[in-house]
Amino acid sequence: MSAIECYANHVIHEAMQPLIPTVCLLVGSLLFFSSKAAATPESALARMSPYERFVAIDNACGWPLLVLLPGDEIGAFIWPLPSHGHPEGQVEYWKSGDGGRTWGRVGVPVPHAPAENRMNHAGGVNHTGELVAMIGGWNNRRPASDTAPVVPFNESRTLDPLPAISVDGGVTWRSHDAVPSPPEAGGQGYVPYGRIGQLPDGEIGVVLYRGDTAFYTSADGGRTWMRKGRISDGRVENETSWIRLANGDLYAAARTYGSSNVVARRSTDGGRTWVHEGDLTLPNQHPADLTLLPDGHVLLTYGVRNQGQWAVHLRWADAEARTWSAPTVLVDLEGATNQRFAPNPGRDGGYPSTVVLSDGTLVTAYYSRGMPSHNRYHVGVVRWRLP
Fold it and tell me: Residues 361, 363, 365, CA angle at the centre, nearest 5°?
């Protein structure tokens, strides 16, 4: 494949190995994109500008999941502690009434039990306007105030996810029967991830993974769930976002094990069967969020964790998600660390989630371990527009 063909078709070819420098030219732009992502300076990528940037929720690892509500309000499901789920705790539901500039805590979808956390989450709105959450987590967790050594996750098990419904805007929630895992999960509970989205005929859908990656649907607003189809077999993929396209196809962006890039999956039969459609990002660029734009185009926002390039990037595609743009830098996470003076600082960040307001403003939330102007874990928000 020639350089021109590579980005004329806007496909990251599987032959682009991390240790083989391959430079592709996007026709009509000055962008050069190397297959060795770590060697590509961010200055070589186009940048989205201008934007408004906020520290939205402080001292939280976050993993934010945004949900657009009536009247341009925005809901957010977040993990509120500054760690990767080592202690007890639970996901919280927050809300913004000013387009993502300021936020307030509203409620807790699923409270945690002692020695457990409820950190893995999916969420959305059903056809009647009720808020729907699916909350998983881990057992064998220490109290948040405990200074005892962290319990490794391989000494814990994932909990069966609990559906929860709120009819009062997220203040109070009612939990329903847990979604049991199939034998493929090996005795572990399924992990919910991404948005709970609407389907035809009053159904809603969600992606769960553990042992395999599966698509589940609910015909009663999120109270009970049924396995509809398998997105991928075995431990191939994990954190997966999905949307329903204008043509009715279901399109998914799945994080892989191993190279930790994002690949495309498509279903043309309502989620029963899925086909692989190639890579959407390079290694260590994950996970991704999919947003349907008002004109029908598809937006992909994703975290970048390459050496020297901690950021949130974006691409956009035609209405059928067949032809993709080259990557653009949305926001530089400026090292994504709170250990500025350490010889080998720990870094952490990404997990973007994007919604579109009625005036066309896009609001993207992400999290970062820190930046020079704010040296703590936080959920950040950028407000921006596509050119």
Answer: 170
Q: Which amino acid is at 252?
A: A
3-state SS assignment for residue 4 = helix
DSSP-derived letter for residue 20 is S
> Is the peptide bond between 50 and the residue preceding it cis, with omega within 30 degrees of 0?
yes
In whole angstroms, what separates CA 70 from the centre of its chain? 22
Contact present, 247 and 258 (Cβ < 8 Å): no
CA dist., res. 35 & res. 107, Å (int): 44
**Torsion, Cα of 98, 103, 105, 107 (10° steps):** 50
The pTM of this model reads 0.89
Mean pLDDT within 4-25? 32
Sign of CA dihedral 58, 64, 69, 74: positive
Query: How remote is the C-alpha of 230 from its chain's centroid?
Result: 19
Residue type, 208: L
Query: 267 has which bridge partners?
Result: 250
CA atoms within 13 Å, Cβ hemisphere of 349: 34
Structure confidence at residue 43 (pLDDT): 57
The pLDDT tens digits of the residues spanning 52-66 come to 999 999 999 999 999
Size of the chain, expressed as the number of residues it contains? 387
**Distance of alpha carbon 87 from alpha carbon 90, whole angstroms:** 10
Residue from 23, 34, 45, 27 nearest 283 by CA: 34
User: CB–CB of 353/327 below 8 Å?
Assistant: no
Closest of 126, 121, 131, 71 to residue 92, by C-alpha: 121
Residues β-bridged to residue 315: 300
